[in-house]
Design brief:
Layout (H helix, E strand, L loop, with lengths): L8 E4 L5 H12 L3 E6 L3 H10 L4 E5 L5 H15 L4 E4 L14 H31 L6 E5 L3 H4 L5 H21 L5 E7 L5 H7 L4 H5 L10 H12 L10 E4 L10
Parallel strand pairs: 1-2, 1-4, 2-3, 4-5, 5-6, 6-7
Length: 256
């Protein structure tokens, strides 16, 4: 049986671990060819690629560098001919007191979590538009935001600000790319068992965290990957500009 993404060429940023790794594996299981990007963890990315079912490609990528993003997209298109789906997952989080956040830390957080989404989306949008001129319309972008971007975050306000920006970028890009048939959506995870979650546990007790999750447990990277698969597939063909919450009920929308 063909998967939901059979024949699609997909680019997943930050795919060497955690949520990005789970997304890459899930997309491969659904029939996609997957390009996995990494910044520093080449060996980890290689292991993820080896665990995928289908054809993969490894690309070094600094999402905050236009030249790096352009090179990665060009390499994918040169090898596979086209790009169908971009997943903006690369992220960086360092929880620290508000008064301890210096300009370097602010810049690193914004550059990775927001500027990176802007650059990759802009460059991939140009590729989608080029493909549309050749009669290949459609495509999709799925951005990984965060519950922190919806609720704010006193332990990482710079990260929350960046993730809120991702939500706004998602809605803007959905309107900008609709004319060429490209859908743009976001997934906003809550607490998910990843390396980032281990950092969160250093500053909060698990009992404290679970008290704010109506379903009573912390999610897995696969829970986020399932949501990304849905939004990237034809099952979500009439959905764009949407933010899909994957948080166990920790955030239920405005007023919750």
């Amino acid at each position: 049986m063909a998967g939901l993404l059979a024949g699609k060429n997909v680019l997943v940023t930050g795919a060497s671990r955690g949520i990005g790794a789970a997304i890459a594996q899930a997309m491969s299981a659904e029939g996609a060819r997957v390009a996995l990007t990494y910044h520093e963890k080449a060996a980890a990315a290689e292991k993820v690629a080896a665990s995928c079912d289908g054809e993969t490609m490894l690309l070094a990528l600094d999402v905050s560098s236009r030249a790096s993003v352009e090179a990665a997209v060009a390499a994918l298109v040169e090898q596979w001919g086209s790009l169908d789906v971009l997943v903006n997952n690369a992220g960086y989080l360092k929880q620290q007191p508000f008064q301890s956040i210096d300009e370097d830390e602010w810049s690193r957080t914004i550059d990775t979590n927001l500027k990176g989404v802007f650059l990759t989306s802009q460059i991939v949008a140009a590729q989608f538009e080029t493909q549309a001129k050749s009669g290949v319309t459609g495509g999709g972008i799925v951005n990984i935001s965060s519950v922190g971007g919806q609720m704010g975050g006193i332990k990482a306000p710079h990260y929350a600000a960046a993730k809120a920006g991702v939500i706004s970028m998602t809605k803007s890009a959905a309107k900008l790319l609709a004319p060429v048939g490209v859908r743009v959506n976001a997934v906003a995870p809550g607490f998910i068992k990843t390396d980032m979650y281990e950092q969160v546990l250093a500053n909060s007790s698990e009992a404290e965290i679970l008290a704010d999750i109506p379903l009573g447990y912390v999610g897995l990277p696969e829970d986020v990957a399932d949501a990304v698969i849905f939004l990237a597939s034809a099952k979500a063909r009439y959905i764009t500009g949407h933010v899909l919450n994957v948080n166990g009920g920790a955030y239920l929308g405005a007023g919750s």
